[in-house]
Amino acid sequence: MQQDRTSEWFVPKIGPKNFRIGIGMLFLPYTAIVTCFALWGSLVTDFTLDRIVSIGIIYFLAVGVAAHFLDAVCGKTKPWGPLPKRKITSIAISSLVIVFTIGLYYAFLDSPLLFPIGIIEGFFLFAYNLELFGGKFHNNISTIISWGILPVFAGSAIQSNSISIETIILSCISAGVTYVLITTSRKYKELKKDEIEISKIKNKENVLKIITLVVLSGTILFFILRV
What tens-digit pLDDT sequence spans the chain (227 residues)? Predict the structure, then answer.
């Protein structure tokens, strides 16, 4: 059974083990994808670069650091092994302080739509990663809403305090991508447990890499075209 996730494709193959674990806990491909979805929401409307950077920082820290770090120390499984719970939790909380500080600044400034989005995202972050309410929210629907739909809404809200038809269309696309991502990732993890069907593992791994590459390259192209 797979107990050590340092063999995952997104974890560096070189360097000290603690460094590799630290990078692995960020789940950089998945974090980058969710951050890109937030950028989609910003790019579909009139935008300013400072707000694009801000929404990018918000989702990178909220998903990449806070959510994944809380899951690593508070989830039912401990795939990264024993970790210093107090230290990891402190890092997660510090990240959330930055996230909510930036979000509240723009919400009070001229984007109050960020308030309900932030409340819902915060609920899913804690309910999912801390497995509150008996883990009822630790499921695909919660992930699709918090990773696929709300980031696009937040990206639009921080720029224009509105949700347009274009935003909704993009959120449908991102929701579909998220569904494929999480279902493929789940099958990949199940196969990795036994490390027997190597060809199937590689196939799922390649799908995950392709999704990541397409979303990242598509976002860069979208940005270039809008600029």
Answer: 445 678 889 999 899 988 999 999 999 999 999 999 999 999 999 999 999 999 999 999 999 999 999 988 876 667 787 788 899 999 999 999 999 999 999 999 999 999 999 999 999 999 998 888 888 888 999 999 999 999 999 999 999 999 999 999 999 999 999 999 999 999 998 888 777 788 989 999 999 999 999 999 999 999 999 98
d(CA 149, CA 181): 14
Closest Cα to residue 150, out of 168, 164, 135?
A: 168
Distances (CA, A) of 25 to 30, 63, 99, 138: 11, 11, 18, 18
In three-state secondary structure terms, 162 is: coil
Longest dimension (CA), the chain: 55
What is the distance of C-alpha 184 from the center of its chain? 16
Kindly tell me the burial class for residue 196, based on how many C-beta atoms sit within 10 Å of its own C-beta (0-12, 13-18, 19 or more).
exposed
Residue type, 177: V
Q: Is the dihedral of CA 29, 35, 41, 42 positive or negative?
A: negative
Q: Other CB atoms closer than 10 Å to residue 182's CB: what's the count? A: 17
Contact 18, 59 (CB under 8 A): no
Residues with Cβ within 8 Å of residue 110, at least 6 apart in sequence? 161
Helices (H), the chain: 17-25, 28-43, 49-59, 68-74, 85-109, 114-129, 140-143, 150-160, 165-192, 198-226
